[in-house]
Amino acid sequence: MGDQDLPGVLVAGLGGSYGICEDHVGDLQKHFNLITMQEFLENKMQFGPKIQAVYIWGGKPAVDQELLGSLPSLKIIASAGVGLDHLDLKLIASFGVKVANTPQAVSNPTADMGMALLLAAARRVVEGHMLASAPDTEKFSTNWMGQEVTGATLGIIGMGSIGYKVAQRARAFDMKILYRNRRRRKLEEEEAVGATYCESLDELLQRSDFVLLAVGLTPQTQRLIGKRELSLMKPTAILINIGRGLLVDQEALVEALQTGVIKGAALDVTYPEPLPRDHPLLNLKNITLTPHVGSATHQARRLMMENLVESILASLSGLPIPNEVLLK
Question: What is the set of active-site residues?
């Protein structure tokens, strides 16, 4: 707990694996009285009326009806990142509370991560590292090969800010770009990256050498890629997921990777996170896994913090909220 005269902001904790970034605490305390979840739970009567904003970092603290009902002065929930599947927007709106996120801050590093995973899976970088560093390796096979990236066809599912930035990067590799989106991009935007809109998901899956998921998780997109969709992909194709784990039917993916329905996969997101240590995905050689670090750069995380501060201050001052999430 900090300066009592500053607006109260509820946070999961200060530092540690699940609290707000330690490097950001000092900056946040210039503007807010940070109240940890533990402090709040230990004395709801004292702290509840003082909290005017909830600062969500890494999906925490969780916001439910009980919490909303305990915060009579709450004006805004500011959530780091672009995904909103951890928030019940209709419930929050019913309490008259605004929501803001940080879509622009995460788009570049997440797009970088998408290309990194694509390249790593295509050229079998993780397998290659294990082979090169294994104590029993005596020689390298001339016929140990991966997939060509330059000139290949990339199908992007979800052509929002992140998907579009992936397309910009892929163009530098002379990739042919297909995409599927709720709304077709403007012609000039398509031409700028050489992207072709697919009228159906099936068409994109059948034509692509790499399929990259950069779409948000909604009831409509849950398990968007299942057994049927995987069967439509080329046997040489690689699936990349930088969206949410539940976009993919993981049981179907395991089967597809084990039986050669597709060549490989690279996932920055799974469900749950982390996977149980005995999950079959962890034992496959033709998969690359990273621990949901799409936006995890020092620069992006600082920008996210600054965006959240700006949104909270605007809300408390009655000004237009940058990056406000509007209920559709």
Answer: 244, 273, 292
